[in-house]
Amino acid sequence: MKKEELIRSLKSRKFPEKIIKAFEKVNRESFVPEEKVLAYEDIPLPIGFGQTISQPYTIAFMLTLLNVRDKQKILEVGSGSGYVLALLSKLSPKGKIFGIERIKELAEKSKKVLEKENIKNVQVIYGDGSKGLEKEKPFDRILVSASSRELPQKLINQLKINGILVTPVRNSIVVVKKEINENKIKEYPGFVFVPLIED
Ligand code: SAH
């Protein structure tokens, strides 16, 4: 499959225009170490160390739920290859985007790729992101790219009021909108993710 076909398939699934534009602007093959011929198949791909980039459909779905605007402060936990960070950068070109990754080699490599792809508003941090990023809180948006067993309350605590968290919990994608009184929670079952490792 070619990039245009992937874009066409995302269009046919009625994702918002700005999400499709972001996919158009980012080269997935730059973030995939091997099997670059498969870069635009709608499947998860290995990025080394037993980790994978999610399939584009799943990423598009999560990014749609995250509802990113420009100039926001955004955190991705489990930033792996940096592919999703690059998409976030296109969705919020004047935003401040942070990625945390617990595998040092991936964190280092993603920094280099993002630099090479000329993406400037993203900072990658090597470390355990299961507790968020205390020194940069609060965030407008938090996206988690690995699955936890329970809703990560510590991450919800690092959201601004009206902020949104999108996170896999077991085999569901869960959206939390933080409100002054009670948070709004929605669950979408039927997904598979690598586990969030909690040290
Ligand atoms: N969004 C990534 C997907 C990577 S897969 C991409 O675009 O490539 C999920 C990543 O979460 C893996 O790289 C894994 O190492 C990382 N991860 C798992 N537990 C973590 C934790 N506690 N803190 C930070 N990263 C974690």
What does this structure look like?
The chain has 199 residues and is α/β, with parallel strands linked by helices. It has one domain (3-189): Vaccinia Virus protein VP39 (Rossmann fold). Helices cover 29% and strands 26% of the residues. Strands 5-4-3-6-7-8-9 form a seven-stranded mixed beta sheet. It has a two-stranded antiparallel sheet with strand order 1-2. Strand 8 and strand 9 form a beta hairpin. Helix 1 (3-12) packs antiparallel against helix 2 (17-25) and helix 2 (17-25) packs across helix 4. It is globular. The N and C termini lie far apart (39 Å). The mean pLDDT is 96. The structure holds S-adenosyl-L-homocysteine. S-adenosyl-L-homocysteine (SAH) is lined by residues 47, 51-53, 77-81, 83-84, 100-103, 106, 128-130, 145-146, 194, 196-198.
CATH architecture: 3-Layer(aba) Sandwich
Give the low-confidence spans: none
Order of strands in the sheet with the most strands? 5-4-3-6-7-8-9
What is the element string, with H for helices and E for strands?
A: HHEEHEHEHEEHEEE
| Continuous helix count | 6
DSSP, total strands: 9
Bound ligands: S-adenosyl-L-homocysteine
**What fraction of the residues are assigned to beta strands by DSSP?**
25-35%
Percent helix, as a range, is 25-40%
How many whole angstroms does the radius of gyration measure?
A: 15 Å
In total, the number of domains comes to 1
